Amino acid sequence: MAKRALAITTTLVLALAGCGSSQGDGPRTLKLWHYEGPDSAMGAAWADAVKQFEASHPGVKVAFEEKGFEQVRKTAPMVLNSKDAPDVMEYDKGNATSGLLAKQGLLTDITDEVTKRGWDKLVTGESQTTARYDDNGVMGSGKWYGVPNYAEYVSVYYNKDQFAKYGVQVPKTLDELTAAMDKFVAAGVTPLANAGQEYPAQQIMYQLALTKADRDWVNRYQRYTGKVDFHDAAWTFGATTFADWVRKGYISKDSAGTKAEDMGLSFIQGKYPIMVSGSWWYGRLVKNIKDFQWGSTLWPGMASGSAGNMWVVPKGSKNKDLAYDFIAITMSQPIQDKLRDAGGVPLVQNGSPTDAKAKEVNDNFAALSSQDRLAFYPDWPAPGYYDVLVSAVQKLITGSATPDQVLDEIAKPYQENLANVGK
């Protein structure tokens, strides 16, 4: 697979050289949006891709605009329906985001381009699930509306120095994780970094539910393959255990108003010994943690994860040909290798990284993928569901609603959305 992928992508990049100014008489500009920080593995890889793109497209400049994840999530439908739409942008995957924009006619159907450029040979198996959407915007079948460019998953990061100081063992099971947090609390340490104002808290609740779930449960919830009961054993365990973690002091009540960036910085600064979050933090942790040793371990059972965010081409893109050329470069072996060596998880695999931490993050994803343990993300099923989950889980942190009330709250918009997707 690696040799075939290398041959395909090398041919693509060579074929692109010098073709940037072939249309129109004046200089051209590729308007690019993405929300990967410069210290992240993806940010470093896409910066190199921009350099390669400009070198192979004389007369073409890339106008890159860095956007925040929340900014893009909230404004994309409005911006993409205006003259300010970028030519190519990174966007979140799933029914509630890319699926919704595809259904609304705001994204370009790139199926023919995917076939022509061989991207369907690079993005295979379950990784295609989040790239393809049917007429109702449901992922997993139909036309291609994006190209995933990396992979990601949620795991448990831990501060090795604090674990050693308090005699805590690296947890491999949920019971061991609970016992570890009990030790920290007993020593007066709040163990778990968290952010209730954005995605981290809802992902933790979903992770807890996943410890009681299987593939059928995930497919019913994410792909509408059957009835979803929000008071079943898995959802009930997730909500009640999360509330219990707050009550026991594993999670600070003050975290209800914090953001993901606050959570990540607090772990980097050594304020919390544990952070449950995504592989997208790896590059930043490697670069910015200077004062202690750290590691990661897989979450027990299934875990949030999938092919990563996607390159999409807005319907209003004025330079679709350049957008496709840029995507091809990001999928080329040199750029995917750059992503891998910076601590990311490439979709185009070509050997194993030499750095121990980069190898760890890639090996862990391979284990999750091969064992069918990737369960997507909790906010994907319905438009606006991200905000629903944020609000609901915040109430578990503050104690302003019971687990049963929270589960009722997240059930209502999910059930209402089923009619919108023909279910």
TrEMBL record:
<dbReference type="InterPro" id="IPR050490">
    <property type="entry name" value="Bact_solute-bd_prot1"/>
</dbReference>
<dbReference type="Pfam" id="PF01547">
    <property type="entry name" value="SBP_bac_1"/>
</dbReference>
<protein>
    <submittedName>
        <fullName>ABC transporter substrate-binding protein</fullName>
    </submittedName>
</protein>
<dbReference type="InterPro" id="IPR006059">
    <property type="entry name" value="SBP"/>
</dbReference>
